[in-house]
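Quick start: what a row looks like.
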Amino acid sequence: MKILITGATGYIGKRLTLALVNQGHDLVCCVRDKNRFSPPSAILPNLEVIEVDFLNKASLSSIPKDIDGGYYLMHSMSSSTDYDKLELISAINFREAINKTKAQHVVYLSGIINQEPLSKHLASRKAVEDELAKGDYHFTSLRAGIIIGSGSASFEIIRDLVEKLPIMIVPMWLKTRCQPISIQDVLHFLSKTLLNPATFDQNFDIGGPDILTYKSMLLGYAGVRGLRRHIYMVPVMTRKLSTFWLYFVTSTSHKLASALVESMTVEVVCRNDDLNQILGIKPIGYKEALTKTLLKIEQQQIISSWKDSLISGRFDSNISEFLSVPTHGCFFYKRQRNVMDREECLSKIWRLGGETGWYYANWLWEVRGFIDKIFGGVGLRRGRTHINRLSGGDAIDFWRVLYSNRDEGRLLLFAEMKLPGEAWLEFKLSNGILYQKATFRPKGIVGRIYWYTIYPMHGLVFRGLLNQLSK
């Protein structure tokens, strides 16, 4: 079959792409920016990649007419306060574009919406579902709650909280019930639903066998890890305070923390397990999902992570727009060193950040990350998805990868920390010389004052980093 996938660079989209190719399907992957899409070379013969922005109708003409079905996997809890309106426009444009194709079936991954009133986030999912259902094709909505898998936002928040805090003072909404599901089962449901007549024109809740409170999920993780944790709930923690607490303790962004806190006050429990019977799927339990997820992390087999989505940082446009490093009106810090061992140097560069750190004066990087968190930035806790692999769009602490080509010996990063301007950091290894270049484009007089204030620190940190990389 020829299948269209939207959100192909997202957490679910990356994994579903691999699963469907392994099942023998040909895929049309819709991405806003090809520079952020780096699938394994082994599956490229089965992929057609097109740049599409569903907020821009003109770009939709590139969607092939001969597709058999499609997945709508686009969700947004973006920086825009009216993201619900943007999601609705995107859904309408998608529906109108698919109506012009031969597609027989569209599957949408939504959220469980069985309790009123809905949060803004879940209400937006429902509105998108209603619009997609009006198309000239069969439509199926799969509604899921908390997804447990390596790199999922929900799992990373659970892990952050339990690993870091032996004692937790938490809001009362941790008594809210939910029905978590493993990423493995979500992919099974998605792949088996498409073009299955028994699922046409219906909506289904999908979840694992366990109905848990958020508190019991935290304690369940602690049990799997063999950690003793104590959780105390207090009635005085407001949503705003809860959002700040979640944002500051975990690696989540403030935008995502705010949306999650609002949603966590609503129960997300399945109405029934009808789809399990139709498709012959028996979902695994919460503890088994945790065990498998932790094993994947230990083995460095993380296929996708929420951290690499643009919502994890301050990006609100395509990375392609920042690939050309400006020169006019910018400040620069340039250094170079001779390198004896090219491969060793590149290995160090491609392991920057995350658990590896920055090789020199890590405490200064940590201080900068802490300050960034205080002012609402991403800080250092985001880390990175893979310990030694980098692709365009990946996150590295408070940087975003714009360009990564190991054969060429070039890595270009864009700063996502809070700054009075824009900053790039570039490494290029050529003819035995490692070139390091930091570029800062200030915004107004505050930006210029910022540059001169921290220039001595840049000299210390960047010079030390370059020396360590070139050893």
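That is the whole record. The first strand starts at residue 2 and ends at 5. The longest helix spans residues 444-470.
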